Amino acid sequence: MSDFQLDYAVPAADLSEYITLFYYFRADVPVFEDSERADHAQLRVRLSPGGAEYRFPDESIQTPADFHIIGPTSGPMHVRVAGPVEVFGMGVTAAGWAAMIGSEASSVLNRTIDASVPFGAARLKATATALREATDNAARFAIGEALVRDLVREGDEQACRFVRQVDGWLAASLSPEMDDLVAVTGLSRRQVERKCNAMYGAPPKLLARKYRALRAAVALVADGEDVDDVIGRGFYDQSHLIREVKQFTGLTPRQIKAEPGVLQRMTIHRRTALGGQVSPLISGT
Predict the structure, then answer these.
(1) pLDDT tens-place string over residues 81-107
(2) For residues 40 and 4, what is the distance between their CA atoms, to the nearest angstrom?
(3) Are 270 and 6 a contacting pair, CB within 8 Å?
(4) Sheet of 41-46: strands edge to edge?
(5) From 171's CA, which of 17, 100, 196, 204 has a CA 20 to 30 Å away?
């Protein structure tokens, strides 16, 4: 594991509505290949030279720009990168998507786009240069915070309030009911689904399944729970658990418990260590 490094930083309080975590990843290998679980949208910049390739859940393959956005993902994304690898990035919440990007998130579900399209090439070039010249993570994370403040400028309180309601709904139950979300938002089912697609990239039912499966994966890897115990986390039976966990992580429960892969293992352990500092939808998934 000495060839790999993954460091997280909790965003400042004024940015916590928009960013899940900042991170720095390094892999001192000729070629890095692995898979990432379903996750929030991401904003990433490759600091090292070379190319990369993402294979999304629908098997489409894309080559990301050096500074790119990955839309929300609904399944495992396979990553292949020429090494050595050095990447800086940040997870983007649904409120962050609305404030910084503003386009329909469902149109970028399981896709990557050049970040210069919404943000402008000059701004990103200056940020990428500063990140590559930074000598430590403290400096990199400070640069990331400055970029987000510039991109957000004025947050959308209405969007933030809706995201708080949806996130609270997702966190409150292993199998949240749509009627409860409709009640807490005061919106119609159609309005709730439309807003979730626009900001989260997926309808509420898919979000509920996604986070239930990711919580189960964390319980298997970080908490050491047995497969039989995890069935009680909102699954009908073992077959249901296997299907759901595999759909959102790419691995069966037994595989993710025994050999989760470098990215999934490091991500789960590093994020669970932040319990109490960030939303449970971040540390618990």
Answers:
(1) 999 999 999 999 999 999 999 899 999
(2) 22
(3) yes
(4) 4-9, 19-27, 85-92, 41-46, 67-70, 112-114
(5) 100
